[in-house]
Design goal:
The complex is a heterodimer of chains A (265) and B (313). By secondary structure, chain A is mainly alpha-helical. Chain A has helices at 3-18, 22-46, 72-111, 115-118, 124-162, 170-197, 201-208, 213-223, 231-255, 258-261. In chain A, α1 crosses α5 (124-162), α3 runs antiparallel to α7 and α6 (170-197) runs antiparallel to α7. Chain B has helices at residues 46-53, 71-81, 97-107, 114-125, 141-153, 171-188, 199-203, 223-231, 245-253, 274-287, 302-311; strands at residues 6-17, 20-26, 29-31, 35-39, 61-66, 69-70, 82-85, 159-163, 191-196, 208-213, 216-222, 234-240, 258-263, 266-271, 292-297. The radius of gyration of chain B is 24 Å and the shape is elongated. The chains are: A mainly alpha (265), B alpha/beta (313). The A-B interface holds A 5, 8-9, 12, 15-17, 20, 111-123, 258-259, 262, 265 and B 51, 54-58, 76-77, 79-80, 82, 84, 86, 88, 90-95, 99, 103-104, 106-109, 151-152. The complex binds adenosine-5'-diphosphate and magnesium ion (MG). The site of adenosine-5'-diphosphate has 10 residues of chain B, from α1.
Chain lengths: 265, 313
């Protein structure tokens, strides 16, 4: 495995797919602004009346031990903001790779450009890794940029009221640090599998929408109070994510080999 | 060391797709530095052969050797010394000509400044400098073909595989393209394999050919030798200033001459051993005061050869 060779593939695809696709470029520019700044701010702002008795004087970032000191309204406000800002930011590591990977995997098939690549001295894994990087690098860059922006934006509003950093709470922070890369990986591998079955970029990206499911599950179980947004829940969630990614990776490696790839040419 | 004279040795090379045979136990050799023609009608197995030799497909059976490396053992080394112009050209439409070449150059381990020099010389060799920064998606068929050829040459391969390189080209473009190929062969001594179903296209380009049909090799060898072997005789044409009745008697009396025909001032005849027949025939005619303007071999086109081989006509 030569990392250099994978980077050559990733650089080419970044130019070909990311820089020359209006859809993907606009996602990269618009998502951090809308999902990272505008929507969390609007939510944080219009939800302020939820807090009956604003409190000050505590500065315990991120919120854990002194939870009991906050009035119930404030607790709910913090829970609510964390959940929604979390949802908005967890959609990106899942959705951005859908479009890039659809173009990278199904697109190569649709345009029939793979033969000279297969004739070059590159291994299946180097090619797969390069294509994965094509999706992962922009997706993670945008996601973390958006997360950072949302942290600044939400706390500018929240800090005035609470006097401490209200977002992200530890479970959400954990989802951001460990969950985000895992979610992008999950999408990439899911797209490898989807692209092996369909022949068109459009089809692949439409089917690829299913990757949003894990984050919807997380969101709705919280909203309806099925489970708490606790460290335990998030840890279990991350463990399930790791397991899923491992399975998908295993399946992807099986599908993405020269013997199968030649069917694309 | 004998095998070193061969750039390519096919050794029972076979490819099946779901049980259906596409290349059927092919065995032949391609000498170093020649332009070799792989001829056959559509579906004969030309593209499959090229994909096998370029390390894209895995043989179902048999093996091949490229510059001493075996497909079965050293396919990655073979990939690095073979350049291929695939049937569907397969360029990245959303990259410029230059970007396409840069990517493939790097993939083969060619790095700047060497990479830039090679791209520069290939672009100028193929008259592509003016469009280097144009997206390949906007190119005409001929230009695409040239970019794809440049791509196949970027790592200076020892063996170049060209799949129907002149199809889709107009006659002028096609002639130009063939000039490039000849120049390559002359200047770089690259071994070149050209596949074609259009025989006139390769007749003046290739010294040796293999004719395949339904995956099987029908005939391999030097074009002229092949013609001789297939027809078993050669045909000549003598042009005279004046054709006198005596001359007819003289021609017909020479042993080894057969199938004599006369049209105007021309004599047509066939013989097997031209080295013996022609000198004695000319001598006899000159002694009879015949004024000979020219003696030519009647050329058969590869088309004729092809028909004879494949259809047995
Ligand atoms: N990937 C493939 N799957 C199944 N059959 C194939 C495949 N590629 C080629 N064939 C079959 O193999 C035979 C030879 O095809 P090909 O090598 O493309 O011929 P040519 O290039 O001489 O026209 C044809 O009958 C073709 O249908
Ligand atoms: Mg073909």
């Amino acid at each position: 495995m030569r990392f250099r060779v994978s980077m050559i593939v990733a650089r080419k695809e970044f130019k070909e797919i990311v820089l020359r696709s209006r859809l993907i470029l606009s996602m990269i520019y618009v998502l951090p602004v809308v999902f990272g700044v505008v929507m969390p701010c609007v939510l944080a702002w219009i939800s302020l009346p939820m807090i009956w008795a604003p409190i000050t004087g505590y500065s315990i970032p991120p919120l854990t031990d002194n939870w009991w000191l906050i009035p119930p309204g404030g607790q709910f406000y913090i829970f609510f903001i964390n959940l929604y800002a979390g949802l908005l930011n967890l959609v990106q590591p899942l959705m951005i790779p859908v479009y890039i990977a659809a173009d990278s995997f199904a697109g190569e098939k649709e345009r029939k450009t793979l033969e000279p690549v297969l004739a070059a001295p590159i291994t299946d894994f180097e090619l797969l890794f390069g294509k994965a990087l094509t999706s992962l690098i922009p997706a993670l860059t945008v996601s973390f940029l958006s997360i950072s922006l949302s942290i600044i934006a939400v706390n500018i509003i929240g800090f005035q009221v609470f006097g401490f950093i209200i977002y992200p709470v530890v479970p959400i922070l954990l989802l951001y640090i460990i969950g985000v890369p895992l979610m992008s990986l999950l999408t990439v591998f899911a797209m490898v599998l989807i692209s092996s079955k369909v022949n068109r970029v459009r089809e692949a990206s439409q089917v690829g929408g299913v990757v949003i499911t894990p984050v919807l599950i997380l969101f709705f179980t919280q909203i309806f109070g099925v489970v708490e947004l606790s460290m335990v829940t998030v840890t279990i969630y991350i463990l399930v994510l790791i397991l899923t990614v491992a399975c998908l990776m295993f399946a992807s490696l099986k599908v993405f080999n020269r013997r199968r790839l030649i069917e694309m040419i | 060391m004998a095998s070193n004279r061969f750039a390519v040795v096919l050794d029972g090379l076979t490819k099946r797709f779901n049980g259906k045979i596409a290349v059927d136990h092919n065995s032949y050799e391609i000498e170093e530095g020649v332009i070799f023609g792989l001829l056959g009608p559509n579906g004969a197995g030309k593209t499959t052969t090229i994909r096998l030799l370029s390390g894209v497909l895995e043989p179902s059976e048999g093996d091949a050797e490229v510059y001493g490396y075996r497909l079965s053992n050293d396919v990655n080394i073979i990939r690095s010394i073979v350049g291929v112009l695939p049937e569907n050209r397969a360029l990245y439409d959303r990259l410029t000509a230059q970007e396409n070449l840069e990517f493939y150059g790097r993939l083969y381990g060619v790095e700047p400044p060497e990479l830039n020099e090679r791209i520069e010389s290939l672009l100028s060799f193929l008259d592509l400098q003016d469009v280097r920064n144009t997206f390949v998606g906007k190119f005409s068929m001929g230009m695409r073909q040239k970019v794809a050829l440049a791509r196949a040459l970027i790592h200076q391969p020892k063996l170049l595989l060209l799949d129907e390189p002149t199809s889709n080209l107009d006659p002028v473009m096609s002639a130009k393209f063939k000039e490039y190929i000849k120049e390559l062969s002359r200047d770089l001594k690259t071994t070149i394999l050209i596949s074609s179903h259009h025989l006139a296209e390769v007749e003046n380009l290739c010294s040796k050919i293999a004719v395949i049909n339904n995956g099987r090799v029908i005939s391999v060898g030097d074009i002229n030798e092949l013609k001789r072997r297939i027809w078993g005789y050669r045909e000549f044409e003598i042009r005279l200033l004046e054709l006198k009745p005596d001359f007819k008697k003289i021609v017909e009396s020479i042993s080894g001459v057969s199938d004599v025909r006369y049209t105007g001032n021309k004599i047509f005849y066939r013989c097997v051993d031209a080295d013996k027949v022609n000198p004695s025939l000319i001598k006899a005619l000159v002694q009879a005061n015949a004024e000979i303007i020219s003696l030519n071999e009647v050329e058969r086109t590869l088309e004729d050869l092809y028909m004879k081989l494949i259809r047995g006509e």
